[in-house]
Amino acid sequence: MPKAIRAAVLETDADVLPGIDPSAERPQADGVPSGACEPVADDPRVAAVRRVSVAGRRWRRAQLAGCAALLAVALTAGAVAVGAARDGGGTAVASSGGAVSPALLSRGDLDASITALQAHLRGQPRDFGGWSTLGLAYVEQARTKGDPSRYPQAEQALKRSLDLEPDNDQALAGRAALAAARHDFADALTYADQALKQNPYSERALSSRIDALVELGRYDDASKAADLADARRPGIPVFTRYAYVRELRGDVSTARRVLEQALASATAPGDVAYVSTALGQLAWNQGDYKTALLHYARALAADENYLPALEGRARAQAASGDRATAIRNMEAVVSRYPLPGPLVELGELYEDRGAEGDAAKARDQYTLVDAWTALARANKVNADLDTALAAADHGDKAESLRAARAEWARRHTVHTADALAWALHRNGRDEEALPYARRATATGYRNAAFLYHRGMIERATGHEEDARTHLRAALKLNAGFSPLGAREARKALEAAK
After folding, report:
1. Residues whose CB is less than 8 angstroms from the CB of residue 473 and which lie 6 or more positions away in sequence, other chains included
2. Phi, psi at residue 252, to the nearest 5°?
3. Which residues pair with 93 in a beta bridge?
4. Are 180 and 208 in contact (CB under 8 A)?
5. What is the signed CA dihedral for 406, 408, 409, 413, rounded to 10 degrees?
6. Residue 360 backbone phi and psi in degrees, to 5
7. Which of 424, 447, 449 is nearest to 435 (CA)?
8. Which among 104, 131, 203, 220 is least buried, having the fewest CB atoms inside 10 angstroms?
9. Can you tell me the distance from the alpha carbon of 416 to that of 390, in angstroms, rounded to the nearest whole number?
10. What distance in Å separates the CA atoms of residue 11 and residue 2, rounded to the nearest whole number?
């Protein structure tokens, strides 16, 4: 267990809020820079989105327009404007009292806070701390609003900080966070270690180091890193990661207890939304939808626009049997944030409902996943895991296997093992898939989708008793883990009687 949670307000993953281009004179809606919606001539990815935009309903028009705007951002977004910083030389300055700190960004109006930071940087363009904060703001914007175009901007802001003050730990920690957001976890670990050499108590670097080790599949090292971070900087960012490491080991009770302690200490809205959502996800994973919905409600009371809570709420509503509300809320999510997870979930909800026109609507969602993948890759985001999972069931199966193999070559986690197993299965290579399916469930991590995938692969390889065991376990753990997967699991068990 972590140490007792400190009473002081501590920074969280959400403490750096989304920003806007520092060259802008005013905030822009939803983090989309001015000019981002301008058409990009003859680009096939934009054309694909436009073909989908023939859809008739108003919400679908809004959804597709949002995705087209994001694609345009990826293709037209420029560098962070640093013209104001060209002051003819001089030395870097430390962050002064006039700078907007990451912690303050989490507790005020987003656009107003970022505008204040921009004004500060125009007045003191050699403030390396201000540039590192701006870089982290862009990373957070991409994470919470699904806008990968912020990553190149974050990269240049952080580079500016390091040009002004080489090896400053704030910018190195920012680079670790950026690399992790782009799914380059080897670089994230490198940058986190560099930051910790400069400042062993850097909360962001300690947190990013845990993230990188988890995502590289080095779970024993991640556990040690979580203990070290708890000893040096106990607080909400560390506690949430500590909880996830425990959950990956199957220790759900400890994970829940740690998150509840973290929530009890949270006062800033960003902290409350972040930790409540983590508790909601933990409850949903265990099939406790009522508790999950309560946690998501608390998260949204703190921040009504918090994407993970909006998505989680819709999933829990679907699993609870309230499909109409789930579809309505998931439509609202993807109209603003057309990301692979919500798009696939909405597509499957349409398929499961099966009303007139739903098949076409589902195809639209899966087409938009391809558009998002193009957007992500245009901004140097490794999207292979997203591609593998979505394409295995709803796209190009051969591409799914290529992406899964590529991801497995980079990192050996339970999630990449599961994705590779399922891609192999969907390509008819079940004997090859089975060892990966077993590996995905070997740590004790309680994930119904993993159990379902293993059961279906065991069924295909003639391990009937094992298949029944794992399919039943999947439905017992979380009977609503997937609109289509849960239905297929029940059909497979019926056929085995």
Report:
1. 448, 451, 455
2. -70, -35
3. 127
4. yes
5. 140
6. -70, -40
7. 424
8. 220
9. 13
10. 17
CB atoms within 10 A of CB 367: 19
Give which of 299, 295, 261, 290 is closest to 279, Cα–Cα: 295
Map tokens 């089975």 to a residue. Answer: 434
Q: Quick one: the chain helix, strand, coil %, rounded to 5? A: 70, 0, 30
Query: What's the token pair of residue 449?
Result: 């989708």
Tokens of 319: 């699993």
Residue 139 sits at the vertex; the CA angle it makes with 247 and 224, to the nearest 5 degrees, is 35
| Cα torsion angle, 378, 74, 395, 310, sign | positive
pTM of the model: 0.79
Q: Is 427 strand, coil or helix?
A: coil
Task: Evaluate whether 191 touches 175 at the Cβ level (below 8 Å).
Answer: yes
Tell me how far apart the alpha carbons of residues 441 and 93 are, in angstroms, rounded to a whole number: 51
- Cα 320 to Cα 314: distance, rounded to the nearest angstrom: 10
Apex 343 CA angle, 188 and 33, nearest 5:
65
Q: What is the mean pLDDT of each run of 10 residues along the chain (497 residues)?
A: 37 33 36 35 44 39 41 31 34 38 46 71 90 86 75 92 96 96 96 98 96 97 96 94 96 97 93 96 97 98 93 97 97 91 96 96 94 88 90 95 96 97 98 98 96 98 97 97 96 90
Question: Dihedral of the CA atoms 154, 156, 160, 161 (nearest 10)?
Answer: 20
- Scan for tokens 């439509």, then name that residue: 331
328 near 350, Cβ under 8 Å?
no
